[in-house]
Each structure stands twice: as C-alpha cells, then as structure tokens.
Design brief:
12 helices
C-alpha cells in the first residue's frame, strides 16, 4: 500500500543521495488501451499525469463513461485523502473537475480546511468550476465562518478571489478589498472590479 510505497520511495532517495548505483528502471507510464478497465485507467492518470492523464480523459470521453469514471475518482479521493502525493491529488482533481457530479460541496468543504495549502487552493478551484446555488451557499458559509473565527489568512488565496468573482458574491466585496491589501494579488483587484466597479476605482486610489 501507500506506506510501503513511501518507504520504498524514501529508500530510493537515500540510495540515490549516497551514490549507490541501482539498475532499476524508472517506472514507465502504462499504455492506455481502448478496453482498459476504468479503475486502472484512473490509477494511471493519477499516478503519471501529463500525457497519460490526457489519454485517459480521451478514453473516458470515447466510452461515454464520465458518470462512472467520476464516481471512481470521487471515491478514490475520499479513500486516499491524506495519503495522496501532491501530484496524485492534482491528477485526481483534474479528472474530477472534468465531470464533477458527486459530493461537490462536501469535497470543497473538506479541502478548504485542510492543512496543505495546495489542497486548499484546489478546493477553491473546484468551487469556481462548479457554479450552482448549492456550491454558492457552501462558499458563503465557509467565508462567514472564517470571518467569525478570525481565520481569514487561511482563505486569502487567489483561487478564492476567482470563486467569489465567478459566483458574483457582491456581499464579499470588503473581503476582496482586504485580500488585495494583505496579499497584493491581482485576482482580488479583478474580483473587486467585477463586483463593484464604482467602489473599486475609489479603493484603488487609496491602495496606490
């Protein structure tokens, strides 16, 4: 399982750092073939990303298997939430966001309160891709709780600004302004303009 993999990986690093020569070949991405079982295809996409991920997406589309594949990916993310490497997480979310049908808001809530910044950023990205009322309410709830608990720094990432802009959450204008002043990230400025062009132009004069 994952623990064994991590151990082997750590040993591999040790060996390569101490200069022993190993004859082991690097793990090669598997061939993606037309009747490949979806479970296997999803594993390959998560593990290798890049070209393999693109081939798997084509395969799923050709088979019209997104509903089934999406469920596999969702279950995989939940089952390995803590254990996935950053690359596997990115690969999994890339697949999930291609057809986000299951547990969107639950996954979003879980991700944005994670300790890993990258997982939080991916969570906000998910919320900006899924633009429905239920997600809008979940986003509002997460923002309100962060303000209540004085836990703002954890949510001030540019992906959050994109989400607020895409959901047109006009009541979050002040939070965007705070984000701009605290992070200097242009996505907060873009969100301010989108939510309230008049107020934002005055605010930018203060900011400059």
């Amino acid at each position: 399982g994952m623990k064994k993999f991590t151990l082997i990986f750590a040993l591999g690093l040790l060996i390569s750092c101490t200069g022993f020569q190993t004859t082991e070949e690097p793990v090669k991405a598997p061939e993606i073939y037309s009747n490949m079982p979806l479970e296997k295809a999803v594993s390959a996409a998560m593990e290798f990303g890049g070209k393999t991920l693109r081939q798997v997406k084509k395969l799923i589309k050709r088979k019209k298997a997104w509903p089934e594949a999406s469920k596999i990916v969702y279950n995989r993310i939940n089952a390995n939430f803590e254990a996935m490497t950053p690359n596997q997480f990115v690969g999994a979310m890339h697949l999930y966001m291609s057809w986000p049908q299951y547990g969107q808001t639950e996954l979003f809530r879980k991700m944005v309160k994670d300790d890993r910044p990258m997982v939080r950023q991916l969570g906000w990205q998910l919320a900006s891709v899924v633009r429905n009322k239920k997600m809008g309410l979940a986003v509002q709830d997460v923002l309100d709780k962060a303000l209540e608990n004085n836990n703002i720094d954890q949510i001030l990432v540019s992906q959050m600004a994109n989400t607020v802009e895409r959901h047109q959450m006009k009541e979050s204008y002040t939070l965007m302004r705070m984000g701009l002043f605290k992070t200097d990230h242009e996505d907060f400025a873009k969100a301010m303009i989108s939510l309230d062009p008049v107020r934002s132009s005055a605010a930018f004069m203060d900011y400059l």
